[in-house]
Amino acid sequence: MADSGDLQLFRYPQSKFVDAVRWLHPVSAFDRFIATAVHDTDDASSAVEIHSLSFSPESRNPNKPLLHLRSNWPSPSRISALRTSETHQKHVVAAVSTFAGSVHFLFVDPVDVSIDLELSNDECQPMHNGPVSAVDLQSGGHECVSVGEDGRVNLVSVGEGRLDSQQLHDNRGLISYTAVRWGSQAEFATGGFGFGLQWWDKRKPGGLVSQFKGNWDQKNTTGIVHSIDIHPSRKHISVVGGSSGTVFAWDLRWQQQPILLSGVSLSGTGRSTCESEIWEIQYDIHAQTSSISSTSSTKILPVMACSEDGILAVIEQGKPHTELLAEDCAINSFNIDPQNPADVVCALEWESIGILMRAKESASVY
């Protein structure tokens, strides 16, 4: 748990509901910034807030990092998804989607983390007819993919002082998409109801090249995919978090044989990390005990997941899960720092931001 010598959890109460959290990619190893999507229930306002993280030897607790609000951007609607990427033309980029169907790119100055520019789609013609379920931003920050409950899959890219959009697919609401993740510069995975997954290639006509219908054990599997992650060196394997504590992997080489990592299958087998919704999942670089090159290509690398019942855990195939946090409230979102993988930022439902710091040695968390 977080009170052990290997784990430290610092809580930062907020005056607003925290919907999502993301590390920003710094230009200096000494800079650490966090972007949050917040919602004020008193006046129904939403915003992206950017905080700096620093240590001060003069503070009451010098081992606790200080969190300072540096800038914010008011959103026209409640934020449904937030993603960040590396610098694009000397700026850090954040992609924001809303429940009103809009998509926005924020260009953040990497030095003073002020928001220099915001680009959005035409408010009169939103990209989605209803809420945008999820967005994902490509490495480099020049293009994102958005999916919605309306069944649309859109590609959004930076143009000359504007956002250019292309509708890759529209099934007119027959299938709703709830999650999306890039696998390469041209390929991405989407997820939706019934634990359905789809693999897309934007270079192909229509985009869709493969799909998994979630019919485990020759039966229909109910549930919703909430989050997808794809390892940059293993794009053929998607890890998925969804309803009822279900975490599984989908390997394009064996498409109809999902690998259950957590949850109970229809045959009654499996080990469950939790019993509620898995809101976010991410490959845990810090927990990888050996290099990718020396690991079997069929073994699923460790992942981290957060849940509605307040669990933050590391899940590794064939091993008992490692519970990092067990909160009294939901953990809505988390993000592992790509520059310092031992550190994790998470959004706690009781209007707090949590910073979890693990021991730098990967083996210490097991």
UniProtKB/TrEMBL annotation:
It comes from the Eukaryota. SUPFAM superfamilies: WD40 repeat-like (SSF50978). One of its GO terms (cellular component) is nuclear pore outer ring. Keywords: Nucleus, Repeat, WD repeat. Its main location: nucleus. It is found in: Nucleus. This is Nuclear pore complex protein NUP43. It comes from Platanthera zijinensis. The lineage of its organism: Eukaryota, Viridiplantae, Streptophyta, Embryophyta, Tracheophyta.
